[in-house]
Design goal:
single chain; 354 residues; alpha+beta; 6-stranded mixed beta sheet; 6 strands; 64% helix; 8% strand; elongated
């Protein structure tokens, strides 16, 4: 600290000599002198001292030099000070911009390593502290998507970040963008953080969707929660789930259903295959099953969703019963038909989504 103060005093003394010399000859600063002021601005930025205070010091020195100069020698001083301060501020701002770029690059590298688990664990834990995370604790990850991709510095992402900081202050939260999505990593014992993030993200994107992974321990737990959130968004797209907030814990049945893909394909083909004999193919009848099960097996609501009369919808259910020998209105048959209909969406079958 003492050495830094001495260096600053030495630079101000050199600055004063430069002003006196310029005023003595009536000249402006040379290129070398301007370069020296820029370099000094860059050095000063690294000390963490504010630019306003540094410029104030320059003006104080300029007043002291003016008081020492004869009246006829003081005229060039203002132009010289303007040049010197401008060059100094340029160097200071250049150093700050470079620091910001380096910080952004470091942050991006950390986020990539954190979410993909591709870094040395010990080093990752050390770097996490710098960005406000303690990876020894459990964390959960929320992933938000919107009509338009998210990007660093975009107004939507910036607005959500400002709202989060205003609400939760210095809680250990990490906000970032990745592959056009907005990511929030929060302590696993603070579900209110991710709930508020989901609310903000949904409101800011006018119809976006947020998936929240389960809480898991350690650095690997962040990756696991992130992957759960991504899988939840993928399932929502394939199953046409339009809920604004998806919880991975509520969707665990679907990965179980698709774990044995061949078995699921066999079930779908066995149960729904006969629907392909229908006029117009299987898809209209599969859509009928989706609407029926999605509406809680209420025929009137399902008919409304498909813009059909109740009579036409009931006819479709009867046609499904005739072709498959399974009655959608019979609880004994319903589970098999619904599981097969879900499988048709997940595969998809018969070649196009439902």
């Amino acid at each position: 600290m003492v050495a830094g103060a001495e260096a600053a005093e030495g630079e101000l003394a050199a600055y004063a000599r430069m002003l006196r010399d310029a005023c003595a000859t009536g000249r402006l600063l040379t290129r070398a002198e301007r370069d020296a002021r820029r370099a000094e601005g860059e050095r000063a930025a690294g000390t963490g001292t504010g630019l306003r205070g540094l410029i104030r010091e320059h003006l104080v020195v300029a007043r002291e030099v003016m008081a020492q100069l004869p009246t006829d020698r003081a005229k060039p001083l203002l132009a010289t000070v303007e040049q010197a301060v401008d060059a100094f501020a340029e160097g200071y701002e250049r150093a700050q911009q470079q620091a910001v770029r380096q910080e952004e690059a470091a942050r991006r590298e950390f986020i990539d390593d954190l979410l993909y688990g591709g870094s040395d664990l010990g080093r990752l834990v050390e770097r996490a502290e710098r960005f406000g995370l303690r990876l020894s604790q459990a964390h959960a990850v929320a992933v938000a998507t919107g009509p338009e991709p998210y990007g660093d510095g975009f107004p939507v992402a910036r607005g959500i970040e400002e709202a989060m900081l205003a609400r939760f202050g210095n809680r250990r939260i990490l906000l970032a963008t990745k592959d056009g999505r907005l990511i929030c990593v929060a302590p696993g014992d603070q579900p209110d953080v991710l709930g508020y993030f989901a609310k903000q993200a949904y409101g800011a994107t006018d119809g976006g969707q947020v998936a929240i992974g389960r809480s898991h321990q350690g650095a690997g737990g962040v990756v696991h929660s992130y992957e759960e959130a991504l899988n939840a968004l993928d399932l929502a797209a394939r199953l046409e789930i339009d809920s604004p907030v998806l919880y991975a814990a509520d969707l665990l049945v679907y990965p179980v259903l698709t774990r044995d893909r061949q078995a699921m394909a066999d079930l779908v083909e066995s149960v729904l295959g006969p629907l392909q004999q229908a006029r117009g193919g299987a898809q209209p009848l599969i859509n009928t099953l989706h609407a029926y099960f999605d509406s809680g097996c209420v025929a009137t609501e399902a008919a409304r969703r498909l813009s059909l009369s109740v009579r036409a919808f009931t006819y479709r259910l009867e046609r499904i019963h005739t072709l498959t020998q399974a009655d959608p209105t019979d609880p004994q048959h319903r589970y098999t038909l619904q599981t097969a209909a879900i499988g048709a969406r997940l595969l998809p079958w018969p070649g196009i989504p439902g």
